[in-house]
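The material for today's practical consists of a large collection of protein records. An example says more than a description, so a record of this kind follows:
***
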Amino acid sequence: MKKLLVVIIILAVAILMTQTVPDKKAHKRAMMKAVSEYVDEKAEENGFHSNVITNIGKSVVNFAAATAIDAKLKVHNYYLFNTTSVRLKGEDKLLSIGAFGHVFTFDKKMLREALEEGDDQEE
């Protein structure tokens, strides 16, 4: 009886996972939030306080990041969860994992470096 209960619970979790895998848009939103937070932190560290020119600069950086993410982001679906990556120097670099309707992004700095390396690779 206990084995049957365990099997039912495992199946229920597996079914829940397949139904709640985030889509590419969710991954992009989570990564853009991480990039935006990183840009805000860097601006503040460098003494750029919130003003019109700083906000325009942040908008330009966020737009460039969104464009790069759209072009380079690859989603790998494993049915129970998915991952996103970008191809850098001939290998895929993992950026996020999605499961249960949530996207878990990695370090904001690593995400920015991955996008910068991708730009260097195209040149």
